[in-house]
Every structure is written in C-alpha cells, then in structure tokens.
DNA sequence: TGTACATTATACCAATCGGTATATAAGAAA
DNA sequence: TTTCTTATATACCGATTGGTATAATGTACA
C-alpha cells in the first residue's frame, strides 16, 4: 500500500470508530505513519479526504445496486438480489458502510453530511426506481412507491447496523442467506406467514 | 426560561444541526446568552450536558412507548398505537429525535454514542417485548422476534428521518394518520394489498 | 447587620484544531 | 550535470478546543 492508500485506510478506521468530526487529521497521519503535508498533498483538506473516501467506495456500492436492480425477474427476485448484494457489501465493507450510514443520519448542516448527501440521493433513486418499474406487477400504487423505497432501505440499513450493534451487546444478529430471505419475505408478505 | 434550560435548548439546536462533536461549548453558551462557567456549573462537562439532555427527553419517549405497548389489543392495534406515538413524538420533538438517531448511528467508540446506548437498549427491549408478548397470536416465531423488532423500528426510524430529509431535497414525506396506517399495514401484511 | 450559599462573569490554561511555508530528498528528463 | 517534478518532513501558524481559578454578584437566612 502506498501512502495515499494508507491514509485512506487509517481515516476509514478512525472515522468508523469515532466519527468524522471527532477524529483529527493528526491522528489519521500518525496511524498511517506519515505526516500532515502528505495528507494535504493528496487530498487538499480533511473534507477532500472524506470526499475521495466516499467516491471510491460508493462507486462499487452504487454499481452493484444498479446491476442487481436491472436483473431480469419479478419484484421479489429483484428485491432479494438487492438485499443480498447490500448485506454482502455491508459485510465486506463493514466499516465503510456503517460510517456512511452514520453520515447519512448526521446533522443536515454538518459539512460531512453535505458531502455524503449526493451519493445517498442517487442511491435512494435507484431503490425508488425498482418499485416504479414494478408498478405493473403491484397494481395501483397510489404513490406508495416512496413509502416502499423508504421502508425497504430502512429495514435493510437497520439490520446492517444491528449486526454490528449486536456484537457490542453480545447478541447475535447474523444475516445469513435464510435471514435475508426472511427479511425480504416479511417486507413483501408481512409477518403472518 | 432560566439559564439551565436556555443552555439545554441551544445545545439541542446546535447538536441537531451539526452534531455533538462538531459543536463547541463556546458556541452553545454564546447562543444561550451565558458564559462557560454557567454551563459547567449546571452540567459539569460537555458530556454531562449531553447526558442531561438525553435523560430529560428519553424519559418522555420511553414512557410513551411503554404505555402504547401495554394497551389492550391485538398486535396490529398495538403496533399502530406505537407507530402513532412514535411519529407524534418525532414531530413534536423533531430536533431531539433526529439527534438521538444520529447518535445511535454514530461510531461505537464515540463518547456520545456510549452515552446514548443505554437509552436505545431499553428502547429496543420494549419493542422486542411487544413481539414476544404477541407470540401466541403469531404462531411459531422460530426466534423471529428480533427480526421483527429490528425491522419495525428500522422502518419507523427511516420514515422519521426521511421526513426531514425530504424537506431538504424538496420532496414530500409527510406522515399523516393514513400514512401511519399504511406503514404498519405494510409491515404486517406486506406490499401486495 | 453579617454570613452563607447559589449563581455568574472575567480571564486564563494547556492541548488540539485544520492548515501551510519552507526545505529536502529522490527520480526522470535535458 | 542541471533542471524539473513528485513526494515527503520539520516546524510553524492563528484559532479553537474543553475546562477552570478566582472573584464578584445576588439572595436568603441568622
């Protein structure tokens, strides 16, 4: 790993653990084994570092969601594929995904939120697109697409977060393939089955 | 409002807008029209201020959820009541609820997260209790109580957050009584109805 | 009146914040 | 060899961080 990547990695580690605002640049460069001018050479500012961090990872995420959303199949199949990809991505990029979630929920006037907002928006639009494309299968949606999109991402994100939270409080919240199936099934058909 | 309350209010305003770590005590006391020793007289530290803020509001929240959860009725009725209370509380205490959500999603090693964690935990246990109490109505739960509790709170929280987010991007995400009904209905019976 | 307590301000602390001016080292191109 | 570019470190900047020592209020009670 070159210094640029070392900085990105140590920034992610620290941002994930304590959040963007609670971590200083000095700590980031110390952990990466470099000095501040190196960080400012590559990223220009602390916010620039965050931007590059988001760009590199979000590209993978959004591309994967788009692929899963464009697959052939009916709504249940697509939602299952999207959920599966989500949980896989969250597992293999756990620090990044949870950090991004934290940013999404952070104060609207926070600089870091404003940096992540465009990525989240395109993300949300892709999920919304799934339900709009499925309108023929769902009958009269009466504008419930948004409700579904919000509900679906809300369930997925909360489950992802609870996996990490569960480890902390020593409860088990693993998301196996069967669990993924149950989550999507519950979303589609409710809890009475 | 006395100085103590002025400090709590301006702290909430600022924490909500930019997050706990991004806001300094100087800014809080400036906004409240007092000076730092006054803040330290009442709260001892910045973290102590956060603690008092959480205590005062969480008590109202958790008490309301408990009442809604203990009401007579079948599961759908109880869940609707809980959701209704949640959305009402989030509307009337919007800044606080969204700030608490932000804390919940923030880094696990962040001091502020550790302060909010116990409140969230008792909160989660109350929701979990609803599903465990409803086990007779739901047949064999096969340990899905946790899944339901996480899913239900995930949906509610994400909707609450999207109301505020929607205002920002100029989309409408209002949660009327009918919307609340639809959200709970979708949770119970899925999207095909 | 005197005294004790609760409350608040002035003025300060060391440490850290994000960021940079300057110098230097290494490698490629001339 | 000289020069240019890339990449890095030393040492610093003013501003802000959370927090406090000290003193001055106001008020209540003796």
Overall description:
The structure is a homodimer of 193-residue chains. Chain A folds into two domains: 1-44, Arc Repressor Mutant, subunit A (Orthogonal Bundle); 55-192, Orthogonal Bundle (Tetracycline Repressor, domain 2), CATH 1.10.357. Chain A is mainly α and 193 residues long. Chain A has helices at 3-18, 25-32, 36-43, 46-70, 75-92, 94-105, 111-133, 135-138, 145-168, 177-189. Chain A is 78% helix and 0% strand. In chain A, helix 1 (3-18) crosses helix 6, helix 4 runs antiparallel to helix 5 and helix 7 crosses helix 9. Chain A is built from ten helices and no strands. Chain A binds a DNA duplex (30 and 30 nucleotides) through helix 3.
Sum up the structure in keywords.
homodimer, 193 residues, mainly alpha, Arc Repressor Mutant, subunit A, Tetracycline Repressor, domain 2, DNA-binding
Oligomer: homodimer
CATH topology of the largest domain in chain A: Tetracycline Repressor, domain 2
Number of domains of chain A: 2
CATH class of the largest domain in chain A: Mainly Alpha
Sheet having the most strands of chain A? none
Structural class of chain A: mainly alpha
Name the CATH superfamily classification of the largest domain in chain A. Answer: Tetracycline Repressor, domain 2
Largest interface: A-B, 53 and 53 residues
- Roughly how much helix do the residues of chain A carry, as a percent range? over 70%
Mean pLDDT of chain A: 94
Radius of gyration of chain A: 19 Å
Helix/strand order of chain A, N-terminal first: HHHHHHHHHH
């Amino acid at each position: 790993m070159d210094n640029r990547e070392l900085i990105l990695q140590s920034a992610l580690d620290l941002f994930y653990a304590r959040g963007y605002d609670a971590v200083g640049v000095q700590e980031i460069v110390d952990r990466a084994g470099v000095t501040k001018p190196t960080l400012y050479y590559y990223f220009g500012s602390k916010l620039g570092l965050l931007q590059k961090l988001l760009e590199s990872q979000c590209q993978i995420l959004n591309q994967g969601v788009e692929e899963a959303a464009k697959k052939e199949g009916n709504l249940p199949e697509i939602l299952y594929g999207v959920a599966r990809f989500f949980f896989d991505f969250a597992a293999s990029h756990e620090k990044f995904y949870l950090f991004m979630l934290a940013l999404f929920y952070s104060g609207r006037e926070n600089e870091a939120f404003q940096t992540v907002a465009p990525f989240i928006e395109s993300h949300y639009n892709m999920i919304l697109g799934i339900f709009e494309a499925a309108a023929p299968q769902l009958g009269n949606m009466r504008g419930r697409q948004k409700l579904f999109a919000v509900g679906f991402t809300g369930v997925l994100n909360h489950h992802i977060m609870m996996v990490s939270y569960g480890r902390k409080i020593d409860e088990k919240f693993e998301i196996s393939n069967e669990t993924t199936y149950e989550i999507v099934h519950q979303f589609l058909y409710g809890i009475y089955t």
